[in-house]
Design goal:
By secondary structure, the protein is α/β, with parallel strands linked by helices. The protein has 3 domains: 151 residues, Distorted Sandwich (Spo0b-associated Gtp-binding Protein, Chain: A), CATH 2.70.210; 177 residues, P-loop containing nucleotide triphosphate hydrolases (Rossmann fold, 3-Layer(aba) Sandwich); 70 residues, GMP Synthetase, Chain A, domain 3, CATH 3.30.300. Strands 10-11-9-12-13-14 form a 6-stranded mixed sheet, sandwiched between helices. Strands 3-1-8-5-6 form a 5-stranded mixed sheet, with no helix packed on it. Strands 15-16-17-18 form a 4-stranded mixed sheet. The longest helix has 15 residues. Its main location: cytoplasm. Monomer. Its cofactor is Mg(2+).
Amino acid sequence: MFIDYAKILLKSGKGGDGAISFRREKYVPLGGPDGGDGGRGGNITFVVDTGITTLLDFKYKRKFVAEDGIKGGTTKCYGRDGENLFISVPMGTIIKEASTNKVIADLSHLDDKFVFLRGGKGGKGNCKFCTPTRQAPTFAEPGMPGEEMEIILELKLLADVGLLGFPNVGKSTFLSMTTKAKPKIANYHFTTLKPNLGVVGTDGTEPFVMADIPGIIEGASEGVGLGLQFLRHIERTRILIHIVDISGIEGRDPFDDFVKINEELNKYSVKLWDRPQIVVANKIDMLYDEAGFEDFERKVKELGVTKVFRMSAATREGVDDVIKEASRMLNEIPLTELEIPQEQMYIPEEKRFTYEITMEKGEEFDTYFVEGTFVDRLLQAVDVENPDSLRYFHKVLTNKGVLADLRAMGIKDEDTVKLNDFEFEYLL
């Protein structure tokens, strides 16, 4: 089963909590705090694996969670870091953010490795909060949560040559004649329901990879039929072999088919439309009137095509000429990376801990709301039920300038300050 699209949920590991512990030994009843730090949560990393050719594994497993960090121990022992989670994907996989459909990474090289989500930082043990005036802290820092994101994995095949053409024009037969690939071949529409890859290697030419991809119909660029599933897989190709059925035995006009497919390419991507094409008139052995080929050749050349190849994939007539031309063109066209427009790239938000203060008037006392990433981070790091931790909380508000900002806004005695769900009464 060929699967080239998957939506999955990823979550990196939570950091381990810092430990609250005090050294207790014989003859040392007040040895001081010795709680260790928690371990870092596991990262999630994508790795290219050439042994995988589809995204089938993600059809049955949709959620991937890295291991949490281990809690800190006594005697200043650090907790173990969570195991990193490595996810193998086929070469040519693109990672997109699900809600915006913007590209995060393109894994198109043999040794590509991408650290996608990082685990949460481990919390500090109570020994890290020891000061000359706070010699026995009874609080520690909890581990920070891991990152979570829903993503789309999209496979775009890595092929040098892509086969273009309406269904049933002979693309699969051509691939089977030139490679060891064994695509399903039959005389009905959409025999090819999945892309087929084959390596072409003939005497006097460098081997190259050719892809026979499901045929398209009008409206493919809008997703009609096999539409976008087809077009996605020819984005990385360097040249296209455009095969038309010159025999007309199905009542179709070869030139009309040629024009319609190029219109779909143009709608999908101008760069794809501009890609070099080798135009091939297939089923020449079934052509009863030579004037049909001459008329097609004349019309195509009027559009700027320099040569039209005559071919019968079934009898191998003209097949070698097409392969030699493809090899020649590949030698002249350099390898290029898949170009992704800047507006389609996902830009992660910068992790800056900030806050904003708003005020709401009351009949007797006003309420001040402190909100933002700084507040979220601070409330995660302290235990407001613990007196020692609460004093540390007050010190952080002072050092970061929150209390100074409140005074500048005119806060008065007994006004209320709210930080998310936690609130307290302000006293000078």
